[in-house]
Amino acid sequence: MEFDTIAAISTPIGEGAIAIVRLSGDEAINIADNIYQGIGGKCLKDVASHTIHYGKIVDPKTSEIVEEVMVTVMKGPKTFTREDVIEINCHGGLVSVNRVLQLVLRSGARLAEPGEFTKRAFLNGRIDLSQAEAVMDLIRAKTDKAMNVAIGQMEGRLSKLVQKLRQEILEVVAHVEVNIDYPEYDDVEEMTHRLLNEKASYIRNELQKLLETAHQGKILREGLSTAIIGRPNVGKSSLLNSLVHENKAIVTDIPGTTRDVIEEYVNVRGVPLRLIDTAGIRETEDIVERIGVERSKKYLKEADLILLVLNASEPLTPEDEALLETVAGFDVIVIANKMDLPQKIDLERVRQLVPKGKMITTSLLKDEGIDELEEAIATMYFEGQVEGADLTYVSNSRHIALISQALQSIEDVLEGVELGTPIDIIQIDLTRTWELLGEIIGDTVQESLLDQLFSQFCLGK
Ligand SMILES: Nc1nc2c(c(=O)[nH]1)N(C=O)[C@@H](CNc1ccc(C(=O)N[C@@H](CCC(=O)O)C(=O)O)cc1)CN2
Ligand SMILES: Nc1nc2c(ncn2[C@@H]2O[C@H](COP(=O)(O)OP(=O)(O)OP(=O)(O)O)[C@@H](O)[C@H]2O)c(=O)[nH]1
Ligand SMILES: [Mg+2]
């Protein structure tokens, strides 16, 4: 494919000792030569591929020296984008790298859109769509486990499985086609039904297995949305601080301290939590606090996990009871806090109200019980899981949605077989399954979707 030459700063802006301006496209080497001054007049177009060269960046208009650099020359197709790639390694800091980028743009490159380098790797066929998405997940991964899932996907684990299933479907479709073309053999229809049943069952099972990983995969990728709720002053913000091992939230002895919602990412034994500290829930007259309370009720509904904090040094209040009843159907861990004070709470009653939830007793003041809580969270979400080593996880909502739809259409195939529906009708659902799976790897995908997906990347990636 023919593309123009793009350029962008590929390192964090204004951070670090070295900053890289990356170019990709047919003109990358010429553009670099236009502003590069090597030792002894050396030109980058003459050097061997995948070599790095010391030199100066010079403004061709004014002959002014702009930067001292190292330039990497990588000729396609063995590059990240499969095009010619130039990387100009500048001194860190905002000014110098920006000046180099401006010169590159003035010399004929176009500023890359977010994710455009990776998009080219996809359009030029080096990686498929799910692998490109994995590159983005890799950048965002917040724990080792999430990283492993992204690396597995980047290496094409999901792609290979999807391709295998599509191949199976294609073979059945081909078989069916042949039979439609030669209807003169009587027993062909029956045989085809049997074959369809066998193959479609296999595909259904594989898709089901994949979907079973979706819950954990999504948690790994996006973080487990965890809402800390409870009455005012019970220790919710103290709990957030204990889990993140830092004083992120304000803690005071005044009930109603937390007014707005505080969000923090923490890694609890490999489980990434998106912790949400909320305003204490109670009936309130204060208008600001009331908005916070409304918002915390909303978070409660959207949370994957609820940490309900109670004050163990007080008897259960009607508000506590109401909260316990509200969360009984959710994934919930009840935390009876302030155990360092004389205990007044009836823990048996708490257990009765949330029979399925786990209960932990803590004294956040004395830093007691946090280990047990972390343990409870880890076993709740990764019980018996071996680091996801050989499991193909599906973690991306787009993939999960497509696999669910594919599963539905393969179930339609099976139902058709059951009912003895004519083969050429069943074939429509079979082909649909094939198309849906194709969307995962970007085989059958629309341009507008591609733009949307790649625009979520960072600039320069
Ligand atoms: N300086 C720098 N570091 C970087 C990147 C980069 O673009 N520049 N990457 C950017 O994300 C990542 C590395 N990813 C890459 C993936 C594939 C190829 C590549 O050239 N693949 C060729 C095979 C190369 C060979 O055989 O030598 C290919 O698949 O055809 C390069 C980088 C991380 N580190
Ligand atoms: N004795 C004792 N006090 C605690 C414990 N945990 C928290 N506290 C105290 O309880 C008070 C309230 O703690 P916070 O963490 O601010 O409570 P909160 O639930 O966030 O309160 P709001 O934001 O007002 O809803 C503070 O004075 C804490 O120091 C504990 O385990 N034991
Ligand atoms: Mg608080």
Automatic annotation (TrEMBL):
(6S)-5-formyl-5,6,7,8-tetrahydrofolate binds at residues 22, 87, 126, 461. Residues 223-382 form the TrmE-type G domain. GO terms for molecular function: GTP binding; GTPase activity; identical protein binding; metal ion binding. K(+) binds at residues 233, 252, 254, 257. It is found in: Cytoplasm. Binds 1 potassium ion per subunit. GTP binds at residues 233-238, 252-258, 277-280. Its EC number is 3.6.-.-. InterPro entries: G_TrmE (IPR031168), GTP-bd (IPR006073), GTP-bd_TrmE_N (IPR018948), GTPase_MnmE (IPR004520), MnmE_dom2 (IPR027368), MnmE_helical (IPR025867), P-loop_NTPase (IPR027417), Small_GTP-bd (IPR005225). Keywords: Cytoplasm, GTP-binding, Hydrolase, Magnesium, Metal-binding, Nucleotide-binding, Potassium, tRNA processing. GO terms for biological process: tRNA methylation; tRNA wobble uridine modification. GO terms for cellular component: cytosol. Homodimer. Heterotetramer of two MnmE and two MnmG subunits. Belongs to the TRAFAC class TrmE-Era-EngA-EngB-Septin-like GTPase superfamily. TrmE GTPase family. This is tRNA modification GTPase MnmE. It comes from Heyndrickxia ginsengihumi. The lineage of its organism: Bacteria, Bacillati, Bacillota, Bacilli, Bacillales. The gene is mnmE.
